[in-house]
């Protein structure tokens, strides 16, 4: 098989995060319209190339004041670092549908190696619509990626204390990325 190129469909690709809040619950946030691509030879997934870009200015937690605080220099500092990137450096196939994808995650201008655990969800041919017109079938593939990072490693260090030595926000953050990738008809493919 030949290398295929897939682009992330922004309207159906998003990233979410969750962090402990006040020692008792989780706060969740999301980013929509994640941009990216995957280039892969299905017979040699270990040679895959992939990248993703998140617009950090669009963080959404459902609470406008918290969203503004997250965009501030206390957290994401979107005035100076409006985008985050993940650039793949390697893939290890664990099973027919499970992979570890390593790469460099850049947040607030700081790059750190991160491993995403990726589950391949399958492929399907679906209608492709542009400007209200069905342009025929396009092949789509789904992926679910998860990771846990320490926000301190990226310079996201704001915090405060609560009773009995607790903290407002945990250092560990769980990340989930849902990818709907579309086979690029202009790119290399079998």
Task: Please describe what this structure looks like.
- With 190 residues, the chain is mainly β.
- 4% of the residues lie in helices and 59% in strands.
- It is built from 1 helix and 12 strands.
- It has one helix at 64-71; strands at residues 4-8, 14-21, 25-31, 35-40, 49-55, 83-93, 98-107, 110-130, 133-150, 161-162, 166-167, 169-183.
- It has an 8-stranded antiparallel barrel with strand order 1-4-5-6-7-8-9-12.
- Strand 8 and strand 9 (133-150) form a beta hairpin.
- It starts with a strand and ends in a 7-residue tail after the last strand.
- The mean pLDDT is 90.
Blueprint of the fold:
Elements: E1 4-8, E2 14-21, E3 25-31, E4 35-40, E5 49-55, H1 64-71, E6 83-93, E7 98-107, E8 110-130, E9 133-150, E10 161-162, E11 166-167, E12 169-183
Antiparallel strand pairs: 1-4, 1-12, 2-3, 2-12, 4-5, 5-6, 6-7, 7-8, 8-9, 9-12, 10-11
Averaging pLDDT over every residue, what do you get? Answer: 90
> In oligomeric terms, what are we looking at?
single chain
Beta-strand residue percentage: over 45%
Helix content percent band: under 10%
Q: Summarize the biggest pleated sheet.
A: 8 strands, antiparallel, barrel
- Uncertain ranges: none
Number of helices: 1
The shape is globular
Order of helices and strands: EEEEEHEEEEEEE
Tally of DSSP β-strands: 12
Strand arrangement across the biggest beta sheet: 1-4-5-6-7-8-9-12
Structural class: mainly beta
> What's the alpha carbon Rg, rounded to whole Å?
18 Å
N- to C-terminal distance: 6 Å
Q: Can you tag this structure with a few keywords?
A:
mainly beta; 59% strand; globular; 190 residues; 1 helix; 8-stranded antiparallel barrel
């Amino acid at each position: 098989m030949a290398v295929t190129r897939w682009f992330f469909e922004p309207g159906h690709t998003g990233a979410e995060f969750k962090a402990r809040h006040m020692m008792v619950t989780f706060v969740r946030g999301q980013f929509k319209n994640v941009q990216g691509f995957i280039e892969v030879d299905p017979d040699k997934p270990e040679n895959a190339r992939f990248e993703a870009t998140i617009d950090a200015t669009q963080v959404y937690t459902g609470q406008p004041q918290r969203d503004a605080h997250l965009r501030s220099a206390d957290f994401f500092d979107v005035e100076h670092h409006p985008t985050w990137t993940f650039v793949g450096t390697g893939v290890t196939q664990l099973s027919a549908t499970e992979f570890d994808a390593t790469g460099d995650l850049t947040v607030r201008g700081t790059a750190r190696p991160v491993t995403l655990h990726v589950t391949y969800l399958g492929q399907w041919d679906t209608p492709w619509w542009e400007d209200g017109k069905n342009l025929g079938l396009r092949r789509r593939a789904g992926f679910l990626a998860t990771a846990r990072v320490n926000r301190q490693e990226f310079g996201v260090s704001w915090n405060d204390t609560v009773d009995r030595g607790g903290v407002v926000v945990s250092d560990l953050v769980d990340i989930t990325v849902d990818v709907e990738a579309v086979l690029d008809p202009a790119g290399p493919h079998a």
